[in-house]
Sequence to fold (196 residues):
Amino acid sequence: MINKKILSMFCLFLMLILITRPAGAIEIYKTSCTKSNIETPQDALLYKQHIMRIQKNRALVYNALDLSDEQVKSIEECAVKYTPVYETKFNELIKESYTLKALIAANMESVEIKQQKKIVKNIRKDIENIFKEEDKAFKKCLTREQRSKYSMIKKLERKDFKEAKHPKDYYKSNPRMRPFGNPKPCTDNSETKQLK
Fold:
């Protein structure tokens, strides 16, 4: 029993290492998710990449959860069910974002632009609702232990994202500290006097 817990925690730790996002992915995440609205086709594409990245990260999480064959089969059926819906919604989102960009470029009336922004925002909400439905279907397939592992993984991902979003400035708290790999010596006179 103890060895199984140690093994599962080791697998969980290993998956968290694999899941951690690089700095570029965090920048994409910030630009696509912290913006409340999508105004350009590039924003729509970044949002699509963000949703697809989350789905790929889920595939990594599946390994950490030790899913049975039946669970994997039901999750694959769910993916087959939602993939065409995502494609149509993302195509619609990109099309409407191009329309919005054209309206803004043509300096149309603000009423028309607001209506188009509302259309784009509603499509984004539809995509988020579909994603939530898919997430609920995924969680229904899991056992209680797997759900707790999954929530722990999500909690650690959020913690890692917050830490990456607000990095601690070690040089501010200790100005005499040199950046790693910097061969230049400190310029403090008291240090040089002590060395002589």
User: Anything to note?
Assistant: The chain has one domain: 17-166. The chain is about 80% helix and 0% strand. Residues 18-35 have pLDDT under 50 and may be disordered.
